[in-house]
């Protein structure tokens, strides 16, 4: 595996679900992040995670 492939693999993300303007993403390293959105969007994301994906622990991100 080349150095370029290692860099690209590190920054690969997958969109799990969107809540209004908030996006719940999963990074290649297994971490989940909630990006953007209003307080209501983040609240909806918290509720969805608690009901359907309780194994996900995400960190809110501003950008």
Structural description of this entry:
- The chain is an alpha+beta fold and 63 residues long.
- The protein has one domain.
- The protein is 35% helix and 33% strand.
- It has 2 helices and 4 strands; from the N terminus they run αβββαβ.
- It has a 4-stranded mixed beta sheet.
- Strand 2 and strand 3 form a beta hairpin.
- The radius of gyration is 13 Å and the shape is elongated.
- The termini are far apart.
Features:
single chain, 63 residues, alpha+beta, four-stranded mixed β-sheet, 33% strand, elongated
Could you outline the blueprint of secondary structure elements for this entry?
Layout: H1 3-10, E1 13-19, E2 22-27, E3 32-35, H2 39-52, E4 58-61
Parallel strand pairs: 3-4
Antiparallel strand pairs: 1-2, 2-3
Q: Indicate the percent of residues in helices.
A: 25-40%
H/E topology pattern: HEEEHE
- Global structural class: alpha+beta
Strand fraction:
25-35%
Largest sheet: 4 strands, mixed
User: Can you tell me the overall shape?
Assistant: elongated
State the helix count.
2
State Rg: 13 Å
Distance between the termini: 30 Å
Number of strands: 4
Low-confidence stretches: none
Number of domains: 1
Mean pLDDT level: 82
Report strand order across the widest sheet: 1-2-3-4
In short:
The chain has 63 residues and is an alpha+beta fold. 35% of the residues lie in helices and 33% in strands.
């Amino acid at each position: 595996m080349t150095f370029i492939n290692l860099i690209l693999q590190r920054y690969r993300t997958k969109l799990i679900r969107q809540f209004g303007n908030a996006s719940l993403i999963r990074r290649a390293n297994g971490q989940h992040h909630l990006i953007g959105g209003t307080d209501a969007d983040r609240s909806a994301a918290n509720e969805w995670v608690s009901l359907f994906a309780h194994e996900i622990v995400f960190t809110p991100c501003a950008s």
